[in-house]
Amino acid sequence: MAKNKEEKTNVMRTLEQRKIPYTAHSYDPDGPIDGVSVAQILGQPAEQVFKTLVTKAASGAYYVFDIPVAENLDLKKAAKAVGEKSVAMLPQKELLPLTGYVHGGCSPVGMSKHFPTYFAEEVILVDTMICSAGKVGHQVEVAPDALIALVDGQVADLTVQ
Hints:
- By secondary structure, the chain is α/β, with parallel strands linked by helices.
- The chain has 5 helices and 8 strands.
- It has helices at 10-17, 35-42, 75-82, 92-99, 144-150, and strands at residues 23-26, 50-57, 62-68, 87-89, 117-120, 129-135, 138-142, 154-156.
- The strands form 2 sheets. It has a 5-stranded mixed sheet. Strands 1-7-6 form a 3-stranded antiparallel sheet.
């Protein structure tokens, strides 16, 4: 039986253009699937799978945060990390027009505009991290340092303790 050709997303193409090695993972996106369930489906520890969250600061600036799927973003820590008075989660309906991504398929790579991006400090504990490939049902596994450098990201204390 012929192997199905892997569907390439813009995130995958960007990684290839920048010569950043990655492993593609996919899962059946039907039904509501949270990040921890995605980690289980992929057979990966939840600490290795990251979700991408977009926020809007009191100043009107937007910020992107990548944290482990089992963790919650501490909005006060996030605001402190970016030097803002406060940040709030972006309403879901504003995600697609702002980033070009839908909820559940948001990646730190390839957003419509470049936003300051921060990774939870837990990222230093994993050899590879898995994040959305820009489409629901598709993930990419990459070296954290390579991904952080690609998006000009920073590492900070961001999660609820």
